[in-house]
């Protein structure tokens, strides 16, 4: 089911929160407690910490990743929605330069990418390798994300710093996904629709145990 920010408060959500193995061990400070809660999907602890100190929501781990990036990387619609509607900054980048949008492109998380674009994040922001969300989506063969990013004006001819190649170049090299190259060739002939606007009636998002 598509994760939506519209009237999301009306949704009756019931999450089963359970610790996951192999999580980073954090110690000391509410910021680390917050990130640990996000990683372990401990909704009660996370919301408690955010209510007590709203700015904690943009805490970063040692790799510069935020709770929003953690939630997006595991394609977690409930936590992603909560964080986006409670002040998480969608434009922050990790130490490697990956933004939340690039994270969404990497795992093929269309719904998160759509909502990030409605929040007007920079569509062509690049990481330290010069990769944009469009390049990553092309490399991972996420055609739906490629189409979405192109529609809002992603530049298919911007080159990375690692190989000097563009999203269009990568699509041409991939003989297994010719439909992606066709999307690029077709969409670049059309005017971009521009940024997606966040609906005015975007509601709260409450995580319940």
Describe the structure.
- This protein is an all-alpha fold and 209 residues long.
- Helix content is 41%, strand content 0%.
- It is elongated, with a radius of gyration of 18 Å.
Layout of SSEs?
Layout: H1 30-39, H2 43-52, H3 67-73, H4 77-84, H5 100-107, H6 110-118, H7 133-139, H8 143-151, H9 167-173, H10 178-187
Strand fraction band? under 5%
C-alpha geometry: elongated
The main pleated sheet reads as: none
**Number of beta-strand segments:** 0
How many helical elements? 10
Mean pLDDT: 84
Tell me the structural class: mainly alpha
Helix content: 40-55%
Q: Can you describe this structure in just a few lines?
A:
By secondary structure, the chain is mostly helical.
Question: What features would you highlight for this structure?
Answer:
209 residues; elongated; 41% helix; single chain; 10 helices
